[in-house]
Amino acid sequence: MIIEFEDTLITGNDTIDGQHRELIDRIAQFVRCCEQGESKVKAIKMLDYLDEYTNYHFTAEEKLQEEVSYPELPQHRTKHEEFKKTISSLYDYLDENEGPTEEFTELVKKNVVSWLMNHIKAFDRSVAEYINLVENPDRL
How far apart are CA 136 and CA 130, in angstroms? Predict the structure, then answer.
């Protein structure tokens, strides 16, 4: 699985796209760490960063939505909360095991990578389009 920011993930909002690039880069590093069987400590540190950056990104994204009165904000927040629970379950997995296993790596790919890519393409693109319409009402 190739984990990189690609054109299909561009939302058209520079702030969101920049944060997505950083997030995807960090996730790719995390997956490589897991695939290489790095230590539990290193995996936890990388998960810590991913957790912190995800929270930063979600907060910024939700703030943008609040500023433009995005009507789907409650649903978007719910999706973000789902992702936070996924991150929490990854911590639980690492707590219960000696380190990242193949099973753990597959969980990360499925529940983090796939989730994020789908979320960006659907939910975040919709937000960016709405922001663009609000900021450019004369285009209607």
Answer: 10
CA angle 82, 64, 133 (to 5 degrees): 110
b/e 89-122 (16+ beta carbons within 10 angstroms → b): ebeebbeeeebbeeebbebbbebbbeebbebbee
Length, in residues, of the chain:
140
Structure confidence by residue, pLDDT tens digits, 60-111? 999 999 999 999 999 999 999 999 999 999 999 999 988 898 999 999 999 9
70 half-sphere exposure, CB direction, 13 A CA radius: 24
3-class secondary structure for the chain? CCCCCCHHHCCCCHHHHHHHHHHHHHHHHHHHHHHCCCCHHHHHHHHHHHHHHHHHHHHHHHHHHHHCCCCCHHHHHHHHHHHHHHHHHHHHHHHHCCCCCHHHHHHHHHHHHHHHHHHHHHHHHHHHHHHHHHHCHHHC
